Amino acid sequence: MEKKQMIYNKLLNLVKEENVKVDEPLKDHLYTKLGGRADFFITPTSYEEIQNVVKLSNEDEIPFTLLGNGSNLIIKDGGIRGIVINLKHLNSIDADEEMVTAQSGARIIDASRFALEKQLAGLEFACGIPGTVGGALYMNAGAYGGEIKDVLDHAYVVDKEGRLVKRMASELDLDYRTSNIPDRGDIVVEACFRLTPGTREEIKEIMDDLTFKRESKQPLEYPSCGSVFKRPPGYFAGKLIQDSNLQGTNIGGAEVSTKHAGFIVNKDNASTTDYISLIEHVQKTVKEKFGVDLEREVRIIGEDKE
């Protein structure tokens, strides 16, 4: 029996058939609307299913990739081999007094809105971050002076051996747009945020203000991967790009946004190669003009197209 068919059959023993897709176009799951196909695209509905898929991946040496909602990610045109797992069905959010618990597949925006309804303050900064809760922990997402490490109490993860493990926030090495989650090989399945009581009016006022700032400054009218570069010490990436006269520069269908220089948008049916080439051009130009190395915030994964 062909290896791919064997893997498919094993996956059907672990996950419902409707949640196992073969040769799934990943562009349908990314904000950039770019990227090749996944050999197997799995959307589990329980922590146990995740654990079982991880164990299968280990036992049969099948490459394994976790995909959130694709808001800060570029996947190459050749796609991803092996298993891609997406936790979109694990998206519940609940509260117990001052603790908000959100599953990994929930959007961090929705966790912020849920906290508002419960009159709990602390997650306002996340009201415009498009990623999932799991993705927010993965990169210690932040905006407008707040970040995940300010409010995270603990998380539950499936480790690389397939065990369900509790990790305190202090164990995750949360720092500027980084954590040790990828190094450990953990899959975040649940996050618990410790918030503080507030009034709905005050919390909503902050969220409305941040939403206005985001919508007025960011190029939300085009597909993009969000903010492309981390903030270099002592500088702002967008200002460096703007001062390098790069706004409006394009390679193929990818363009440095004229609205916010820190964004690269899919203006006209760009390929992933267009996107990556433009990122590298921006890095090279800023380095030559200002001597500053721009480090990518966006992740690039997958294989080149043959």
UniProtKB/TrEMBL annotation:
**Entry keyword Cell wall biogenesis/degradation:** yes
Q: Which GO terms describe its molecular function?
A: UDP-N-acetylmuramate dehydrogenase activity
List the EC numbers from the record: 1.3.1.98
Cofactor(s) of this protein:
FAD
Compartments it resides in:
Cytoplasm
Domain FAD-binding PCMH-type, chain residue ranges per copy: 34-198
Which pathway does it operate in?
Cell wall biogenesis; peptidoglycan biosynthesis
Q: Which reaction does it catalyse?
A: UDP-N-acetyl-alpha-D-muramate + NADP(+) = UDP-N-acetyl-3-O-(1-carboxyvinyl)-alpha-D-glucosamine + NADPH + H(+)
- Is the keyword DNA damage in the record? no
Keywords in alphabetical order: Cell cycle, Cell division, Cell shape, Cell wall biogenesis/degradation, Cytoplasm, FAD, Flavoprotein, NADP, Oxidoreductase, Peptidoglycan synthesis
Catalytic-site annotation from UniProt: R177, S227, E297
Matching Pfam families: FAD_binding_4 (PF01565), MurB_C (PF02873)
What does it do?
Cell wall formation.
- Family designation: Belongs to the MurB family.
Q: What is this protein called?
A: UDP-N-acetylenolpyruvoylglucosamine reductase
Q: Which organism is it from?
A: Halobacillus kuroshimensis
Gene name as annotated: murB
